[in-house]
Design a protein that fits this description.
It comes from Microvirga subterranea. By secondary structure, the chain is an alpha/beta fold. It contains 13 helices and 21 strands. The structure holds 2-aminohexanedioic acid (UN1).
């Protein structure tokens, strides 16, 4: 008998629209004259989205502020129950939402699903956290006194996220913010409005099941930069987490500082790896390939600079070139494809510019250029580029959000450490070595200056359990695990006198 094959939707747009409707995104968000939501896979427009007006944005912040005032009174473990339900809904929606990430952001299938898994993981983490928002009890110098600290909810948490992790970044912030007693107003990238709307529909389902979630606890603002600015400037938003370029952070940071709001900045990375003489080269090869080419080089943790010791350069680099020329580029939905499209034309143009600059600086470029086989001609697919550079100059010093890996030789460990740290960004880093002294030195006080420093793992693909973020031009913010939650709460130090006298600290006398 013939096996009946279910009819596959004909186009990316049709499939995306079917997912939106399955996930319960209401039709009111669509408007023929709105902002087109496109797919980088084919460049086609999926739907048009009605954007949030400035007045609506301000009203949403007002609702979120009111919601905060009710939400903060709920015991934290109850707030955790809401996040647990979000995690359940995400589990149920994983295939659909992961697929939508693929259709809208162009991630390959396993990375689209991985992104949703990351959301589920942070929900689990936050549920546990909701019973662990601990403060300290502190020894006081005064008799019959007690001193302690209490962590209180802070207010509306603004989230500005980028296209490359269109939904996970929201969840790292929102899952913590909700258990911490904050409300959340999210301005997703204007390039990924559909996954944001789908996420909001999932949250609303969890809210319905929970019952009693105040209206406005989770708001989404759809639009460009002007809408983001409203969030940055509104004094009712005491903490704002912004993910994007260093240029964006330079604009946002001072504005938040001017009104004394807290900034959680996750900006550019220019991440490096060192391959030392003792490195396990098979392992390094795989680590480098994923970190440099995965997500088509569009992670802020993507590996961009590779320092290879002179003694292993001629073993490793030819193998790496082979991997580069053999990697499967194409439609991210297709089995076996590892490198999908760049998000748009400007990303591709930026890559070309950087490669031209690298050539002018004496670099030898392997790969690069547009990949147009078959249906790929409709999108901006790039061949990943491996560039052998004589030294760390020109485009090597900055982040280009595309799959370019600059490779350089080194001979001296101390010198390479210096070079490793000689860039503006300070997000992620790694060393491949079996030498314990090198490994420990790399992660020591005098080693990598980044927020993430790995050994025998590439710089990308961090788990949510650790604090995520970086130093210098990366902005200094921390999200996700460890004690990142503290940024979403305010700390009160309480001193209680249960005695009958009033001893003053530091022995001060003030007898009236
Ligand atoms: C980003 O690129 O914005 O470590 C963040 C990683 C992911 C997060 C990347 N967990 O690659």
């Amino acid at each position: 008998a013939l096996k009946s094959v279910p009819a596959a939707p004909a186009t990316v747009a049709e499939e995306a629209r079917a997912i939106l409707s399955r996930l319960g995104v209401p039709d009111q968000v669509f408007a023929p004259a709105g902002r087109p939501a496109t797919s980088p896979i084919t460049g086609e427009t999926i739907v048009h989205i009605r954007e949030t007006t400035p007045e609506e944005a301000k009203a949403a912040i007002g609702r979120a502020d009111a919601a905060f005032k009710a939400w903060r009174k709920l015991p934290a473990p109850k707030r955790g129950e809401f996040v647990r339900l979000i995690g359940e809904e995400l589990r149920a929606a994983k295939d659909d939402l992961g697929r939508l990430v693929t259709l809208e952001a162009g991630k390959v299938t396993s990375e689209g699903l991985g992104e949703v898994q990351e959301m589920i993981d942070i929900c689990d983490f936050a549920v546990g956290l909701s019973r662990q928002l601990y403060g300290l009890t502190i020894a006081t110098e005064r008799a019959d006194h007690r001193m302690m600290e209490t962590w209180h909810p802070l207010g509306v948490c603004g989230v500005i996220s980028a296209f490359n992790f269109p939904v996970a970044v929201w969840s790292w912030n929102a899952a913590l913010a909700f258990v911490c007693g904050d409300s959340v107003v999210w301005k997703p990238s204007e390039k990924t409005l559909l996954t944001a709307l789908a996420t909001q529909a999932i949250v609303e389902r969890a809210a319905k099941r929970f019952g009693g979630v105040p209206e406005g606890l989770s708001e989404v603002l759809l639009g460009g930069r002007e809408i983001g600015e409203i969030l940055v400037e509104d004094h009712r938003v005491p903490v704002l987490s912004a993910t994007g370029s260093t240029a964006m952070g330079r604009q946002v940071g001072p504005k938040l500082a001017a009104r004394f709001a807290r900034a959680i900045l996750e900006l550019g990375g220019n991440n490096a790896a060192i391959v030392a003489p003792s490195a396990d080269l098979d392992l390094a090869l795989r680590g480098i390939a994923f970190a440099a080419m995965g997500t088509a080089g569009q992670r802020c943790t993507t590996l961009r600079r590779l320092f290879v010791h002179d003694s292993v350069y001629d073993q490793l680099v030819p193998r790496l070139k082979k991997v580069y020329s053999g990697v499967k580029i194409g439609d991210p939905r297709a089995e076996g494809v590892l490198v999908g499209p760049l998000i748009d034309k400007s990303a591709f143009d930026g890559m070309e510019r950087a490669l031209d600059e690298a050539r002018a600086a004496g670099g030898i470029v392997h790969g690069g250029g547009r990949y147009t086989d078959g249906a790929c001609a409709e999108g901006y697919y790039a061949r990943p580029a491996l560039v052998e550079m004589p030294e760390q100059t020109g485009p090597v010093l900055r982040e280009t959000f595309a799959p370019i890996l600059y490779v350089m030789r080194y001979t001296d460990f101390d010198q390479v450490l210096e070079q490793h740290n000689a860039v503006g960004a300070g997000l992620s880093s790694s060393i491949f070595t079996l030498d314990m002294r090198e490994a420990e030195s790399f992660i020591s006080v005098a080693g990598s200056d980044c927020g993430i420093a790995n050994v025998n793992i590439g710089p990308s693909g961090a788990e949510i359990g650790g604090a995520f973020g970086g130093e210098k031009e990366t902005g200094g913010g921390r999200e996700a695990g460890s004690d990142s939650w503290k940024a979403y709460m305010r700390r009160a130090t309480n001193t209680i006198n249960y005695g009958k006298t009033l001893p003053l600290a530091q022995g001060v006398k003030f007898d009236v």
